[in-house]
Amino acid sequence: MISKNAKILIVDDDTDVLLAVKMLLKPEVKEVVTEKNPEKLMSILAKDKFDVILLDMNYKSALNTGNEGFFWLKKIMEKDKDAVVIMITAYGDVELAVRSLKEGATDFILKPWRNDKMLATIADAYQKSQSKSKKNGSVEVKESSPVTIKDNSGTFMDLIGESEVMMDVRKKIEKVAPTDANILILGENGTGKELIARALHKFSLRADKPFVSVDLGALTDTLFESELFGHKKGAYTDAKEDRVGRFEVASGGTLFLDEIGNISMPHQAKLLTALQNRQITRLGTNRPIDVDIRLICATNMPIYEMATQNKFRKDLIYRVNTVEIMLPPLRQRGNDIVVLAEHFAKIYAQKYNKAVPQFEEATLRKLKQYSWHGNVRELQHAVERAVIMAERSVLRPDDFNFTQFEATPEPMGQAEAMRLDEMEKNTIMRVIEKHQGNITKAARELGITRTALYRRLEKHDI
């Protein structure tokens, strides 16, 4: 989460972008300032100080160089060498974004962005801003949170839980984060695999370098190599310009490959070659490029079972899992359900300007007895809905109405499994119809990711 004390400046000549980002950030931070004319940037910075600056790469300004973002980035860094700047760039300008990191930017965001990725990037940048302030002797506002991972850069605020299994996860993170060991994170959807990946990066020796996340489950076969390794102009029909792949973008930092269990065997072979050689070759060229990455992978698939069935390469598993972190499902975390529910209730009460609600004992029992197949993500959305809709200061059991795909897992026969598939299909169709085809809203209500929902749509031929 981004701090409620944060002040954010957004500079972009596209008023739609300014409005979209302002609407996204307004409930999350103290102040959002927008400016469409970069010529006014230095006068704004002369009057006020911002925790994070979002800066577009290109403007239709008098400067008209095509790389105006570099000019204004340089001006910002000359004024304040500790400024935290996130560059906003179009999908095809990744190479420029990488150059901006070398010239002082903290991170970059690609258009079009996903809101959760945008918020996570800004949250990381804000933490870096606070770390710089602390080193320079500024007073840092600390926020309470039931978290124990600490080092000289502060506290990782989003890893919440008091259960024994989560304590074990924290200990493992503390041990392996400072190393360059490859990490494989296993766990069901919604257990927080990307959160763990970001924690590992934050407490690594590469923390000031890029953290690049790739959802492999969302890549088509035709995009796989281009997305990871890049391509040269003319390499294929739609390759209208040179493009840097995610391996190169992440070089020096951390590459997070989510949903690694979803890639095909031919792509597994190409990925293994790149990892073994620490080199990639862009499509359309024969020149290998050295890359220096710390690799973190994640999946919710039964990857070892897949290996015994020859659906996943054993040598690739050995390459990616120097250390393995297993995230428990929420239903196995005991009282963490209560801790997380109370945490989310505080967050959303503040976000929607409501009093922080209390939970009836019967409500807590209901939450602890529910199977939470969407895990922490499902709990978060359930609490948010309850806070919005509740008419009392105490949340009662009837404030939580769950959309549940399946009963508590237990052995089932083929006929029962078929009925369960039909139930899942009908539930998905009902929720999508309710939201008039809006996949984002449907996935949120179902407590799963958009990618997972698309996979289910394909599975059920919807």
UniProtKB/TrEMBL annotation:
The keyword NADP does not apply. PROSITE patterns: RESPONSE_REGULATORY, SIGMA54_INTERACT_2, SIGMA54_INTERACT_4. GO terms for biological process: phosphorelay signal transduction system; regulation of DNA-templated transcription. Keywords: ATP-binding, Nucleotide-binding, Phosphoprotein, Transcription, Transcription regulation. The keyword Ligase does not apply. It holds the Pfam family AAA_lid_14. Residues 159-388 form the Sigma-54 factor interaction domain. Residues 7-126 form the Response regulatory domain. GO terms for molecular function: ATP binding; sequence-specific DNA binding. The modification 4-aspartylphosphate is found at D56. InterPro entries: AAA+_ATPase, AAA_lid_NorR, CheY-like_superfamily, Homeodomain-like_sf, HTH_Fis, P-loop_NTPase, Sig_transdc_resp-reg_receiver, Sigma_54_int. This is Sigma-54-dependent Fis family transcriptional regulator. It comes from Rhodocytophaga rosea.
